[in-house]
Q: What sequence folds into this?
């Protein structure tokens, strides 16, 4: 009998357990390694900007990537007003499939993994762009991404102090409470974004409002600061004053997408930027001098989700996490889909009593 093909399924609880078992900082570092590997194979991938469906309340997006061996996509939303209804502002799931057959190998929640891969990519970029030796980071916006950003920069760059600011003091208090037990890391609440930036070598902006906000202005940014701009990730949503960008070295994930969705949507369409893969491959510098302001204009790119799904698939296999489900119909005779359907619905036949043999 033909063996039924099964897909590994990781629900939200499975992914959370997998990350806890691995350790959050270790999971971020491992995903960063996968992201680096895949960005260094840039030319092997089919790449495209994500397909977005915008509405007044937010956006729903599909993000595909393939290297010809595996194909991955992520479904993700961004609805800032969800917080008012105690719902996540970002929710996601994804699929990893083999190209040769098209069979889905993995179906997984990516809500948590999106936060992990965003933090991992942020820190990966900062390793190549920030001035060495920075120990203080300003974190503007203390929502669901904040702990992961803090842990990533602590583990991968040696940040010891997070100066945190959010318009909601309860968010900053939650961040400080959640990270209180992390050795060598201190969260210091700031009264304003300006106060948070005082003395910080790295700044992460991770706000959620779908608007052209001005979280940072040029006079707030000291020479040599590295800015990790994460919150501006769709048309009409920005965080930085355009004059900061005009004076900075800008690195992006995938220029055709970032020019529409990122901070650089405020600049002319031909404004020079460098893609992250070029920096990681040594084809372009991440920083030109100690006093140069650098900006990683991060909007999230499908290649990062591909890397996260690769990590999830391997880690789940190694730790025997998740379950196996018959996600797609695979009848014994692929041409007889109807017969397979009807056979599956047929009630079991009662066993017949054995007739007595004649004497």
A:
């Amino acid at each position: 009998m033909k063996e039924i093909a099964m897909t590994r399924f990781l629900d939200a609880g499975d992914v959370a357990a997998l990350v806890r078992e691995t350790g959050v900082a270790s999971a971020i570092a491992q995903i960063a390694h996968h992201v680096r590997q895949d960005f260094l194979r840039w030319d092997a991938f089919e790449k495209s900007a994500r397909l977005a469906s915008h509405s007044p309340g937010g956006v729903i997006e599909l993000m595909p990537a393939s290297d010809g061996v595996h194909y991955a996509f992520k479904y993700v939303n961004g609805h800032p007003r969800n917080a008012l209804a105690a719902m996540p502002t970002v929710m996601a799931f994804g699929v990893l499939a083999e190209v040769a057959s098209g069979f889905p190998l993995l179906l997984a929640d990516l809500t948590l993994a999106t936060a992990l891969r965003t933090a991992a990519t942020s820190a990966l970029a900062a390793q190549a762009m920030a001035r060495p030796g920075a120990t203080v980071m300003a974190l503007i916006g203390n929502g669901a991404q904040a702990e992961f950003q803090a842990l990533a920069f602590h583990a991968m760059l040696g940040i010891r102090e997070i100066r945190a600011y959010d318009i909601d003091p309860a968010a900053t208090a939650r961040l400080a409470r959640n990270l209180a037990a992390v050795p060598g890391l201190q969260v210091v609440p700031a009264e304003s974004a300006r106060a948070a930036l005082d003395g910080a070598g790295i700044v992460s902006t991770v706000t959620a409002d779908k608007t052209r906000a001005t979280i940072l202005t040029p006079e707030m940014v000291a020479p040599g600061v590295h800015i990790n701009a994460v919150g501006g990730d769709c048309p009409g949503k920005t965080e930085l004053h355009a004059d900061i960008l005009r004076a900075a070295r800008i690195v992006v994930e995938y220029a055709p997408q970032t020019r529409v969705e990122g901070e650089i949507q405020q600049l002319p369409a031909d404004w020079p930027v460098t893609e992250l893969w070029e920096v990681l491959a040594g084809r372009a510098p991440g920083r030109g001098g100690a006093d140069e302001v650098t900006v990683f204009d991060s909007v999230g790119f499908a290649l990062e989700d591909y890397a996260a799904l690769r990590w999830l698939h391997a880690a789940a296999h190694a730790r025997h996490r998740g379950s196996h489900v018959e996600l797609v119909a695979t009848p014994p005779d692929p041409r007889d889909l109807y017969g397979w359907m009807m056979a599956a619905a047929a009630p079991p036949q009662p066993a017949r009593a054995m007739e007595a043999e004649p004497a």
The first helix runs from residue 12 to 22. The CA atoms of residues 103 and 290 lie 50 Å apart. The radius of gyration is 24 Å. The first strand starts at residue 7 and ends at 10.
